[in-house]
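Hi Y.,

Following your request, here is the sequence exactly as I used it, all 563 residues.
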Amino acid sequence: MTIKQEKQWSRYYTNRCHDGIKVHYRCNQVQFRGKQCDAAIYLHYPNDSDQVVLFRAVNEHDHTNSNQRKVFPEEAKKNIEELFDLKLKPKKIYEVLQEKNFKITFNQLKNYLVQLRKKKFGPSTLSLGQLESLCAEKSTVPQSDDEPFILSYYVNYADDIDDNQDVVDDDNKFRFFISMKRLLKIASASTRLHADATYKLNWQGFPVLIVGTSDFDRKLHPFGLAVCSDEQQQDFEFIFKSISDGVEKILQSTFMPEVLIADGSGAIRNAFTKIFNNSKMVMCWAHMRRNVNKKLNNIESYDARQEMLDDIDKLQLCESETIFKNASSLFMKKWSKREHDFSEYFEKEWLKTLDSWYEGYNNFTPSTNNSLEATNRVIKDEHTFRERHTLSRFFTIANDIVNRWSKSRNQNQTDPIIYSIEPTIALQKWTNAYHFAKSSKSVLQISSKRKGFTDYYIPAGEAQNITTNEIQKYKRKKWTSFDQFKDLQFRIWKITLSDNASEWKNGLCNCPSFFKEYICKHIIGMAIRLKFCKPPPSAKDIPLGEKRKRGRPRNATKALLLQ
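Below is the corresponding structure, written out as tokens. Let me know if you'd prefer a different format.
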């Protein structure tokens, strides 16, 4: 008790002797390494008694020839906490402290950061039982739209499994899904579902699974974030069912996506089919093209590789299933003899097993999962800073990530992320559409098969005129070779617009720009020609035939000043 009250002694070493145990203490006002202070004490624990005797050295404290202990200033601690909250790394924090003349060592900084992380994120280790308790505590649905909570969780203990029980989860497993009410509201209004898994976020190597939707501006809106012990079909079933049940229970609404956008993972696809009884799934074009590129590297001829890749790019732009199947047959006819091995692989993998990678598979749906891949990159760049965290600490970080997703979509925030229900038309596209509307390109109008719609045919590229005969060839879709398909299919653009002027943005076009952005200069230009809409005045200030420069237009100068 006396030692603690004096606050100047640290345990040094222990001696075991014939008459008992002696615990020696040193003066902690000097560094452990180096010359020690002459003052010292020790506690004697005699073998023949329960008493403890304190002995003091007759020497007084003398620190003149000793290295003084580097005391950690309180102000330095406050600075470190502020810099830590700014997500700075230890080396950068140390540089800032040196600039502010704080006399601490790098080891002291690292030791304090260990304590700080434990204070903010909890202990570095987490048992399965502790994880279950943590999820249970966070599973209460809050009143606020911007407070994260555990939408659903599942913990399986291997010890609880009956040997006679036939179960898939026969090991220690866990799953938990973090979401927020605002994100679930977006889910209830969505029809497209993106799903993917990412790694390298926690030391244990558990996958982080993210699901969300994309709007008409192709922005991703996550529904939440899940951490599972594996990346199997059961894990994605758990996530999909959690969202569906959560939307129904919390919002009294339904979540029934019409299409899934994902890579070739069978786990995601099978889970989607089982939970939503729907098999409509877009194969990510970016993943497909990367895999094809790797396979093409086995072909020696560079010219052959480039020609095949160009043909596959054209095949991806097919506007309907019928055109895709016919064009695929011509593609195989062209290349099966010249490049037999690749053709065999391409047919088996991308024409029979995963054949939903062309643009016309599902209109107004992204052909890639790039927006979700970009979100994964942002998590690593801006939230974890490419550092792996223990599961207990990543649990706290995951809650912060979901919290930011929700708050950034709060309409009361400055410049919030909007869930767009129709494409936003940029000034550049208005300008291009206005130039197209004022161009001398001929347009042939034909009644559409769709009631209440009209088809407009225009020449593609630099061509100015189009004939009825060319349109008839285009409509027949009869090609004898793949090269003829490329020539005829991409020589004419077909625009389909509603006869109702107010619904012109729901028009369709078969040009690549429309497939990627759900709107194109042809639809806007025809709407301008038909007087369905008016372009903004700033779209008209570029001379016809010229392109708009990058950036916003200059503001008008004051009166009587030359511009």
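The chain has 19 helices and 15 strands.

Thanks again,
Q.
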